[in-house]
Amino acid sequence: MIFSLLLPSLFLAASTVFAQSSSSTPTISAVGSKFFFSNGTQYYIKGVAYQLTDQDPLTDSTQCKLDARQMADLGANTIRVYHVDPTADHDGCMSAFADVGIYLFLDLDTFDTQFDQDNPYWNQTQLSAFEAVLDAFQNYDNLAGVFVANEAMTRLNGSDAAPFVKSAIRDVKAYRDMKKYRDIPVGYSGADIPELRPMLQNFLACGDDPADAADFFSLNVYEWCGSSTFDGSGYSHLITNSTGVQIPIFISETGCRIPKPRLFTDQAAILGDDMAPYWSGAIVYEWIEEANDYGLISYGSKTNSDNPTALDGYPRSGTPSPVSPDYSNLKKQWATLSPSGTAMSDYTASAKNLKAIACPTSTSGGWIVDAAQTLPSLGQTLDKAATSTGGLGAGGKGAGASATKKGEAGKPGYHVVEGGMFVWLWTAFVAGVGGLLIWL
Q1: What pTM did the predictor assign?
Q2: Strand pairing partners for 219?
Q3: What is the domain extent for residue 237?
Q4: What's the confidence (pLDDT) of residue 346?
């Protein structure tokens, strides 16, 4: 009798744990050239760059809660973070941002694993580091997407690095799929280099196999300064250059700081009729006020450089205080801009008919990547003197380089988180029932 009375309670406890482990936060996916929430509405980015220090900014839940509330007041729905520690606990911060509807675009690379355009390579050390970050964040529903690199190419003759960046996209996507994670968008954040436009975006998006292509492309754009215009700023050329790109594209950094004050009038173009039908929003640089003078908030007045809680004299934690009038100028812009976009149900059919954009052709003195060249395999380096291998050397570069082929990036012994949760709950339930029977 006691067992029959307590058994429903045990099931109720188990179901409560399941309910607590699930999230009501809709996830983000890339469909055709747009981002969508899992509830079917289109996702437009109103974001801010959020780093605070060179270290991981997503480990101090108290600070994250303070910043998340202030960002919600600003009207932001997205943050971009450049460096994290995959071994740290991010639950508190990711929950704090999710609670106010803020999503994360996360860079996978670090100072130790970033690409070198002068000596490009892609090896197991880099891939393993990227995998560790993806493993640590894939379970958060408010992870909007990941970048494999930021501004890896900053000049025309740096385009030799493009095939290695695309290989990274390919291998991270293969790892994501092998692990049965949701389709977290994987893409690239590029420097706004006229000599690379639009060849780089087209190269990362092109090809017959979608598994090899970026899920999205983004640019760091500082063209609209002061009281500029859609045509005068060059934003109209961004639209022209992105015509035909079949993946989402957005601005991953923006916000000129000269002339002052920062007006952010470009947001009306990005999130308005000029660009919203084609682009997916923008991330403003940056949240914290520091020496570069781009901050939207500060954590107090500049202090002595010996202050252990400050970097270069700028406090890195505390109650955020808006920088005037920049903060209010951006808030006013975003308050009037809420593009509705299109419903996923109305768009999916046409998205299936989108064709991959043509790969750019190499030209003398111009874009130097041969579209017919096979992407580098894991462990290959650039050999500019080589001809028979299309410019790719066979040897590895750096610790951990290997000749692993596409599809072999997965590591045996990894477990699927969802299954692990079920096993834990079932084990706990059986143990509880067994203990109860023994007690009876």
Answers
A1: 0.84
A2: 190, 251
A3: 29-418
A4: 96
